Structures are given as structure tokens and as C-alpha cells.
Amino acid sequence: MVSPALAQWIDNEDYSHILTGHLRKPDDPTPNYFRSLARGIISQQVSGAAAASILRKFMALFYTPTPAAPEPPAEFSPSPQEVLGRTHNELRTAGLSERKAQYMHSLATEFIEDKSLTELHTLSNEDVIEKLTKVKGIGVWSAEMFLIFALGRWDIFSVGDLGIQRGMAVWDGRNVNKLRKTGGKEGAKKVAAKWKYMSEEDMVRLSEGFKPWRTLFCLVMWKASDTQVASMKEREEGKVKEAGPKGKGKKKELEEGEEGG
């Protein structure tokens, strides 16, 4: 109803799986919030492949392999106490920077001292962001990603995520390849010396019609940001759509948000 052209785009490009494959379902087990936030810290400012490698090495620091299970299972996580038991240098052997090692210790300390962090699902979106951004190393973008992927909230919209910015630029009919080459001219802006495909004001305005389902809108925009889209021929006004650039996957774009560069 908001954008018939976008609906056609989703249908023609078979985006349907991203609308069901990335959000928690009501009967899913409650995720380990400490693990989710630690993974978010690991992912900041690195590629998807690098984040996966660091996460694997980080988990291996605390896992005792067996012949039947030589690798940590997907749900494995060290406790906050175990993380605090490792020095910064030990954490850095997994590929963490000194700053991220500090962030890990800060996160672990907060979970030990503030038991309410295990009850984040009981808070509003705004209260979750306010609470998490008080933790050293977690900013608004990381808190928003936590709301989407750990808590499964349906109406989260992240203006600080570069992937969403780029996807929206594609959807809005902007030539993202040309914008990148010209350093942000012709519609993109430099805000506080940080390059953007479009202004936050434009992003908010264009997303308003998708309330209260903006999380789904973000998922589609992430997909649009890294997929060559040929099926969405026209906008509602009849302008030809520009195809988005091939990228390195949604995960990469999640890392290029507020804390991810």
C-alpha cells in the first residue's frame, strides 16, 4: 500500500525469505543477551568474514573441545565471569583490538553488576537503547541491532546504518555508484565529516509510511544495498530505478553503522 513498486520489487527478486529468516519468533528460545552484545562489539568496524573469524577464535578461548564436538556449538557462550578472567592480552589473541578488549571487560562487568540486563525484553525500545548506550563500547547503532536481531522488535529504523542508507538511495532512484565516485555530491551529504548516501532527514521522511513495520523495511533495504536489482523498473512517479551495487552481504552493512564506520 505504501509503495506498490517496492512490493513488486520484493516479489520479483524473491525477498520473501529475509522477511521470515532474520527475526525471532514467539516460540524461539530467549537468546543469550551477553553473547549477542559481545558479538556486536566484535563486529564493529570489520568485514563480515573478519568478524566471523574473530568470533570463532574468541569462543575457542573458553571452549574445551572433545572428539565428538571439536568446535563450539552455535549457542555456546562464555559467562561474563569467564571473560573477566582473561586479560586484555589474552582476548587480543582472538583478534580483538585493545579497545575492544576493554569493551568486553566493561560489558562483562555490567552484566555481573546489573542483573536487569537479563530482562531487557521487558523494556520499551527507547529504554533498551538508553540502558545499553550507558555501557562502554555500545552506541545507538549497536543497541538498534540488538533490538532487531536479539529482541525481534518490529519497528526499528537505524539512520546510522550505511547499508540502509545505500538501500534507500537505490529505492529513491539515486545512482549510488555515481554518488560514491563523486564523494557524496548530488544528493548525498557529508555530516560531521562522515560520508552519507542521503541525509538522516530524508531517511526518516521516506521511512515514515512503513510504521509500525520498519524493521522489515530495513531488512529489504539491506538486501537492496548489496544486490543488483533489475526488476524494479519504475518508481511510482514513473522514474527509472537505478540498480544497486554488488556488495559483500547484509552482515557487512550491519557493521558499517554508527560504531561500524
Automatic annotation (TrEMBL):
**Alphabetized GO MF terms:** alkylated DNA binding; DNA-3-methyladenine glycosylase activity; DNA-7-methylguanine glycosylase activity
Oxidoreductase found in the keyword field: no
- Cite the residue spans of the region called Disordered: 231-261
Which organism does this sequence originate in?
Answer: Terfezia boudieri ATCC MYA-4762
Q: Does the keyword Cytoplasm apply?
A: no
Q: Which residues form the HhH-GPD domain?
A: 42-216
Family as reported in the entry's similarity comment:
Belongs to the alkylbase DNA glycosidase AlkA family.
List where the protein spans the membrane.
none
Instruction: Show the PANTHER family listed in the entry.
Output: DNA-3-METHYLADENINE GLYCOSYLASE (PTHR43003:SF5)
Top-rank taxon: Eukaryota
Alphabetical GO CC annotations of the entry are: nucleus; protein-DNA complex
Gene Ontology annotations of biological process type: base-excision repair, AP site formation; DNA alkylation repair
Task: Kindly state which keywords UniProt assigns to this record, in alphabetical order.
Answer: DNA damage, DNA repair
Name assigned to this protein: DNA glycosylase
Compositionally biased tracts (Basic and acidic residues): 232-245
Q: Which InterPro entries match?
A: Alkylbase_DNA_Glycosylase/TA (IPR051912), DNA_glycosylase (IPR011257), HhH-GPD_domain (IPR003265)
